[in-house]
Design goal:
Layout (H helix, E strand, L loop, with lengths): L18 H23 L2 H23 L10 H11 L7 H16 L12 H12 L1 H4 L19 H7 L6 H6 L11 H13 L6 H16 L4 H6 L3 H8 L10 H21 L6 H19 L16
Length: about 325
């Protein structure tokens, strides 16, 4: 009777794959986008990724020691967080800012809430928003492809900025292949979709959230009189839909809940893009839906089989 029954946070699925196996699959899925970013923006890309990954791993290792908890560096979740954060940064970002964002993602957003599975928002997205608020000019200083080696790079407007200003857009094929300015991991849609397909085939994610996210964004853009292809292939929509909105800890458990979650992300993204002063709304949309995830889980949870029977003393 002195033993306590401890129930950890959901999900409670038991499978053959470990957390490390899943995270390794995510890392593999991100490699095509990493190669594409390096091709377009130069050798500084892997340096930024390395700084973010090392900072995340060291932060988690130290945090677990200070908190006197079992070390979780071996599950590779910190590596994934570092890569995703790096993919949300411009190639011109100062390395100490990238390291600071990594510490915020791991220490503040992840470990202070209990570690992997306990954080209620995506650590990489939360860190990106903090960096964007703190270092706005540095976070939106993008360079054109193949120019990073020239002095400090030739600055350029992203396709989303061009879209908002009503200027001529790059060809669709350039948007699809990534030959335009933007954050490291958001430019090459082809590489991101290839990684997403790998995750679906490996059953790491289901296509529900990405398809609902991108489908609702495309539909809303049509209703707003906008070109849906431009909206899907610009900004961080595909990166967010495939790799960040599908985070296990911060997305709903049921398929119906995932559908609601994805639609909410798509609609909010388009509302922010079209009506706010921000050209991009993916990060804010995912964060807002992360906060609503517990309520979505409650609304869409599976009904128990059978019916309730009121227990009471039997009268004779």
């Amino acid at each position: 009777m002195d033993k306590k029954l401890i129930v950890s946070p959901s999900p409670h699925f038991v499978g053959e794959e470990s957390t490390a196996d899943i995270m390794q699959d995510v890392i593999i899925a991100l490699i095509p986008a990493l190669f594409a970013a390096t091709f377009y923006f130069g050798v500084r890309v892997p340096i930024i990724v390395a700084v973010c990954v090392i900072s995340c791993v060291v932060s988690e290792w130290l945090c677990r020691i200070v908190m006197k908890r079992p070390n979780t560096v071996g599950d590779f979740s910190a590596v994934v967080t570092g890569m995703l954060l790096a993919f949300n940064l411009p190639v011109t970002i100062k390395l100490w800012m990238a390291a600071l964002g990594s510490v915020i993602a791991i220490v503040v957003v992840k470990q202070m809430f209990g570690g992997i599975g306990h954080n209620f928002v995506n650590p990489a997205i939360a860190a990106r928003i903090v960096l964007l608020v703190s270092f706005g000019p540095q976070m939106v200083r993008f360079t054109a492809p193949f120019t990073t080696g020239l002095v400090d790079g030739v600055t350029t407007a992203t396709p989303l900025n061009l879209l908002q200003q009503g200027e001529n857009m790059p060809p669709i094929i350039d948007l699809f292949l990534g030959e335009h300015g933007g954050s490291l991991g958001e430019t090459c849609a082809a590489a991101l979709l290839l990684g997403g397909l790998y995750l679906v085939v490996r059953r790491v994610i289901t296509p529900t959230i990405p398809l609902a996210f991108m489908g609702s964004a495309a539909l809303v853009s049509v209703l707003m009189g906008l070109n849906p292809l431009y909206q899907l292939l610009t900004g961080g929509l595909i990166l967010g839909a495939v790799f960040m909105a599908t985070d296990y800890a911060t997305s709903p458990l049921t398929e119906k809940g995932k559908l609601i979650f994805g639609i909410g992300c798509g609609v909010i993204t388009m509302v922010i893009r079209h009506y706010s002063n921000f050209p991009e709304g993916v990060s804010y949309a995912i964060i807002l839906m992360n906060i609503l995830t517990p309520h979505i889980n409650n609304m869409t949870r599976t009904k128990s089989f059978g019916k309730k029977i009121k227990c009471g003393a039997k009268k004779y």
